[in-house]
């Protein structure tokens, strides 16, 4: 029952999302399995950047209105909301993931005065750890690590967790953990960086309070593209984030003397919207038009399953560190090998792009909008040629 | 001694910077006097954005290295440093002005533990007020207003001040106020938004400690372009800013568990650099190549003087609110009139773009790289046609 290239070709032929790859511009011969780190370029972006330059040239400062620059943060928020199971007005695109995490974490602690602890997993993405460490130092709170036995009890103000683990791709039980946090009166803050755009995210269904995410991975916004933040509607008027710039003011151009938070998620903004990055993201999100998150998940699972099955046949020296069950895994498969870094470097020379996470993890992402089953087949073929015997 | 259009033409003919206007793309017939709000588009930007799209397409995630994306924050910092009188390693381009102000203000207060007050001017740009209010609330400090008699004494941790007043264009005494702050052991934090790129700024000569600024005004980086932050070399290792994301980590990709600040200004970064905005800014700064800040100041003063003289002749109903002495004024002239908002709207219909600041200020900016003396002449002609008799 050896898997052949013909099997991969057949899977592509039956793939309802196969045509979406044309929305992207990927160099011939490259197998790009690093869309979980930086998404591939949607074709629409270059044109959108040229149109941006035209708008600026033609209308100068007037383009804040005429070209819709002023409304981008909220409008992009509604586009992202659909992908994360949120209401249209519960998401805003602004700043960076870590910056938004800082703002929401401080806001969460303020909504739970008197509680002395923040919980996170030591296995979380390091930037989340660093931000949580910084917030705890700033506010005089204690940081506990859930995966090291720190208790989730009524001293906890907020729990921070990634929906999909950046190393293993494991999907967390969003509804279950949120319920556990709520049981002790804590707030729940999700990091969606490694899930949104690849698998279904249901913030509303899970009863989540707060969330952050980036747009440069599965959302393909480009390097350092603007991030987003989610606040459940029921909490929006109570969120007081600490970076109170004019971007989050209720009447920015009134130039009033005192800060007054804007209604809803608009108060999470700090300054002017980074228009060029937002214009690129707006075009990038067009690649999701007409696609359901369920279809994305099915395609991602199919790609991942093929990769795991092929690896079992041809890459026996690699140890799977992702969950074996595709339903428990995001759109990513990770393997461990002592020579992981060198294997990835040599694979890259052969046009297979994955990435390395210390000490010995190889990550391969299967962005369902543009990765094909034949890409997966090619990747395993080329990696097999460089794994030490 | 009426000033004529011929006089303006003569001034342009003698202007050593006249050729620089070709580096910009400004619509025919438009007199753009709002570069102090959003700079005009440098011609090089559109091409740089197209090149960015090519880099992303060709090298995907590899472009962080091959296209130099990873070095943009520091490299742009060195380019801005020249314009603000700083050493090359004292400036970094990152985040937004208000976000950087937040970070540096918290860091400054941490460097002055035990001091209970922050000073600012009530006349400062509102976003600076809001951020200072937010920081004081966060840290339990008191905010005092210098221009309302708050004493500058040894209870003050840090003084925040704009180099050029956004309403009146008045230049502050950077060296003098910095010395006064230092006399009582306080730190001095300058906002350069309305000065950098139009007049000389000498952070080193003034002994300044910290500074922030935007790049979308006189630096022409485009709407919401990335901001910069300055930390004097002697303080860099002591700055501890509170938003400790992986962008400011000493070894970002080591994925270590604990935050460890990067050396120098790199620690002011929070997350990934907003590459698209930075690429645009990099191209925009090319417009300053071969230009000294002294030449910019001279041109700006010449434009402002012409405007003031013409206004005295033809716009007697307008009250000058900027300093009369060009040496005391940034590259901006402001007038007050009860009907300011309507006058500006009607002038805009005639192609003259200035801007309104409540309650009755009209601001006109003279970006020395692209505004001509004939533009100034045209502006006064067209404004005279709409000022109520």
Automatic annotation (TrEMBL), chains A, B:
UniProt modified residues of type N6-(pyridoxal phosphate)lysine: 217
Catalytic activity: 3-hydroxy-L-kynurenine + H2O = 3-hydroxyanthranilate + L-alanine + H(+); L-kynurenine + H2O = anthranilate + L-alanine + H(+)
A GO cellular component annotation in the UniProt record: cytoplasm
Cofactor: pyridoxal 5'-phosphate
Gene3D superfamilies: Aspartate Aminotransferase, domain 1, Type I PLP-dependent aspartate aminotransferase-like (Major domain)
GO BP, one annotated term: anthranilate metabolic process
Pfam families: KYNU_C (PF22580)
Record SUPFAM superfamilies: PLP-dependent transferases
Listed GO MF terms: kynureninase activity; pyridoxal phosphate binding
Keywords recorded for this protein, A-Z: Hydrolase, Pyridine nucleotide biosynthesis, Pyridoxal phosphate
Keyword match Disulfide bond: no
Pathway where this protein functions: Cofactor biosynthesis; NAD(+) biosynthesis; quinolinate from L-kynurenine: step 2/3; Amino-acid degradation; L-kynurenine degradation; L-alanine and anthranilate from L-kynurenine: step 1/1
Residues that bind pyridoxal 5'-phosphate: 97-98, 125-128, 191, 194, 216, 246
Superkingdom to which the source organism belongs: Bacteria
EC number(s) stated in the UniProt entry for this protein: 3.7.1.3
PANTHER family, A to Z: KYNURENINASE
The family this protein is said to belong to: Belongs to the kynureninase family.
Function text: Catalyzes the cleavage of L-kynurenine (L-Kyn) and L-3-hydroxykynurenine (L-3OHKyn) into anthranilic acid (AA) and 3-hydroxyanthranilic acid (3-OHAA), respectively.
NCBIfam families given in the database record: kynureninase
Subunit-structure text: Homodimer.
HAMAP family (UniProt xref): Kynureninase
Name listed for the protein in its UniProt record: Kynureninase
Organism: Streptosporangium saharense
Gene designation: kynU
């Amino acid at each position: 029952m050896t898997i052949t290239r013909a099997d991969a070709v057949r899977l592509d032929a039956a793939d309802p999302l196969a045509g979406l790859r044309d929305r992207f511009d990927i160099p011939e011969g490259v197998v790009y399995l690093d869309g979980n780190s930086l998404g591939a370029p949607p074709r629409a972006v270059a044109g959108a950047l040229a149109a941006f330059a035209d708008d600026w040239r033609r209308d100068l400062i007037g383009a804040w209105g005429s070209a819709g620059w002023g409304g981008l943060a909220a409008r992009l928020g509604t586009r992202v909301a659909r992908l994360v199971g949120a209401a249209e007005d519960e998401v805003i695109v602004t700043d960076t993931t870590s910056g938004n995490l800082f703002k929401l974490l401080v806001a969460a602690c303020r909504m739970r005065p008197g509680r002395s602890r923040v919980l996170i997993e030591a296995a979380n993405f390091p930037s989340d750890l660093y931000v949580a460490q910084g917030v705890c130092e700033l506010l005089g709170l204690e940081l506990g690590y859930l995966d090291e036995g720190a208790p989730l009890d009524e001293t906890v103000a907020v729990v921070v967790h990634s929906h999909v683990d950046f190393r293993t791709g494991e999907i967390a039980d969003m509804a279950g953990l949120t319920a556990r946090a709520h049981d002790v009166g804590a707030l729940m803050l999700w990091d969606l960086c490694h899930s949104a755009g690849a698998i279904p995210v249901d913030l509303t269904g899970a009863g989540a309070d707060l969330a952050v995410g980036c747009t440069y991975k599965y959302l393909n916004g480009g390097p350092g593209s603007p991030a987003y933040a989610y606040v459940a509607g029921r909490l929006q008027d109570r969120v007081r984030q600490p970076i109170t710039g004019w971007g989050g003011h209720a009447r920015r151009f009134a130039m009033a003397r005192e800060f007054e938070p804007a209604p809803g998620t608009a108060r999470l903004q700090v300054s002017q919207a980074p228009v060029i990055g937002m214009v690129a993201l707006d075009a990038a999100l067009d690649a999701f038009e007409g696609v359901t998150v369920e279809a994305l998940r099915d395609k991602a699972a199919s790609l991942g399953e093929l990769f795991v099955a092929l690896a079992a046949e041809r890459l026996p020296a690699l140890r799977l560190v992702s969950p074996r069950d595709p339903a428990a895994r995001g759109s990513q498969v990770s393997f461990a090998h002592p020579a992981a870094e060198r294997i990835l470097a040599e694979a890259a020379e052969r046009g297979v792009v994955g990435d390395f996470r210390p000490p010995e993890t190889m990550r391969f992402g299967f962005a369902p909008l543009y990765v094909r089953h034949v890409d997966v087949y090619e990747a395993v073929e080329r990696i097999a040629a460089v794994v030490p015997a």
